[in-house]
Amino acid sequence: MQILLIMLIVVILVFSVLLLALAKQSPREKQTEDKEQEEYIRDYAETVRQTGGSMKKLEHWKVIAIYLIIYP
Question: Contact 63/41 with Cβ under 8 angstroms?
């Protein structure tokens, strides 16, 4: 019985630490991170346009994946 109680306490502590870690990321930090990712995508697309090349299929999916991550 004591082992179950100790395990429950450990699980609660781990869960609370995870919640605190997630809560520390402020909305401003999130917006800054999103802007950096958007700038990377724009820079990459501009480089492709300037070189006259086309995006490879894999790279195109990376861009889509990043947009899906950014999408709120």
Answer: yes
Contact 33, 66 (CB under 8 A): no
Query: Which amino acid, residue 43?
Result: D
Task: Check residue 52 and give left, alpha or beta (phi > 0: left; psi -120 to 50: alpha).
Answer: left
43 half-sphere exposure, CB direction, 13 A CA radius: 6
pLDDT for 10 equals 92
The pTM of this model reads 0.38
- Over residues 42-72, the pLDDT tens digits come to 888 888 777 776 655 567 778 888 888 887 6
Domain boundaries, the chain: 2-70
